[in-house]
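Exercise 3.2. Students should predict the tertiary structure of the chain below and write it as structure tokens, then compare their answer with the key that follows.

Predict this chain's 3D structure.
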Amino acid sequence: MKKILLLLPLVATIAFGCNCSSNQEVTILYTNDVHGAIDYNEAEEKVLSYATVAKMKQDLKNQGKNVLLFDGGDHISGGLYCTYQSGIPIIAAMNGAGYDGAIFGNHEFDYGFDQLNLVTNLARFPYISTNLYHYSPDEKKITDPYSHTRYTYNLNKVKVGVVGVTTPYAIVTSTPSHFQDDDGNYIYSFLDGNDGQDLYQAVQKEVDILRNDEKCDYVVCLSHLGNEDQTTTFTAQHLIENTKGINLLLDGHTHAIDPGTKIKNKDQQDVLVCQTGSHFENIAKITIKNRNDIQCELIDHYDGRDEAVNKTEQNIINEIDKLFGKEIATCNIDFIAKDPGDSWAVRKRETNLGDLSSDAYYYCLNELIDEGAQCDVTTINAGGIRSDVSKRTWKLLDCRNVHTFDNNISVKVVSGADIKTYLEFATRKVNIDSEKSIEYGAFPQMQGITYTINTSVESDITVDKHENYEGGPYEKFRIFDVKIYNKVNRQYENLELNKSYKIGGSSYVIEEGGDGCTMFTKKEQELVYRNSSYVDYQVLAAYIESFSYSSNGDLPIISSDTSPLKQYDKLLINYENHDGSERIKII
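Answer key:
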């Protein structure tokens, strides 16, 4: 999601007090939410990568600058080039670029803690995590920190201290089971208790140590929080407002382009907050001067690339192209995940790419896989759809770019009431005005179902501190006119709350309760199918390869008329419309 807070000029300055006794400047280079975007392409004005960062850092050092290079998380998952080998090649690129420190984004946990331990051991830079702790469910208390809770850097006569904060919602937006033991008890905590006070106090404790004991001249907070509207607790703004002593906060998570927003801290002093966007849209260059000011500049172009890091990146790209370069279909349709303004349309409403993705599950489960996998409804969380695909010859690579998380396939038997609750929960942030809708990874892109969202009703769904579904709706119902497609009589029929239905799709939602969908984690719900060797991008590719050919073509053509689902009379399909086929109506 991208929220453009400030566009021009992309420079901001802020003054603050310090006990700095030196005339030395400190320059900080910063990246966030890169998601493996190393595909340098000057023709498409995609010109930044780790090779650029490496060259920029070295050029500044050659000028005699004191330079630190940090990353704000989401660098080993969420994109094709970083999910390859579960992020390990990206760590090699970051090592080569000379990163001095990083924090965990929510997607650093996508592969589980065993892989994260491997990543942190391979990194030649520290991971700083002020709020990730082990938790003892038996003793009901926080135990040991997972990583460095703070870190200090000595640059000639200037000392910089750093704290790092990860969004507590990582537990929901990554895979919940990764934070649990075999009995489902949470054994990791992001200090999310007491309405945020546990987090604020932990950060304040480390800041005080850096200032008073370590005698740091400056304290920088690396933050993967953002300022999402969905929360009034775990945002960069609330962290600043409830702490003091931080001079600069470098943020991430919400993919905002923000060269400098001033936020008052607990002592009513201004703190500068910066965020670069995502996918190497910008690199932040922050200059901390001795005359009590900070300057932040967002750089979207830079001449020169480090040869060694460039070679590392090209090796990753070449390997992926080799593995996924197979052409699988032709298409004259733009499939949409994002709006022109670069917000995630697929997380706010139905889109044709959302339809295509859910249709792929519907087709594969009902037609290609054994009979036990057949289902009534399929769903995919919008957060699992990661890229647009423009009109062109599709390669397997395109499917891999759309679905980067390697989620397995699952089918469960649930009640109609469970499905209705799911819809109420996952669409509760939708507004009739798309600009006012909150982008939400749980938003369901579905097949085999139609329904209407009444946005004039304010949801009374309740969630727990992790943003997991907890209860409701109680009296306020936004979802109505829900119909399920009957494959036998080829008609849409009213959903029956007490009837059992088979719902299929990504195991992340159906089994793991990902994105807070705990209504699918009930013990009485029967898991009737699971495939652990066949993942989401392969499902999409199998569906696309099943489309019809033209009379003189050698590849399938992706269109509504050539879809193998056309055999299901009256099943809603309209890929030519970017807004999908009106499975979801918003009023």
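Discussion points: The longest strand covers residues 158-166. Residues 1-23 have pLDDT under 50 and may be disordered.
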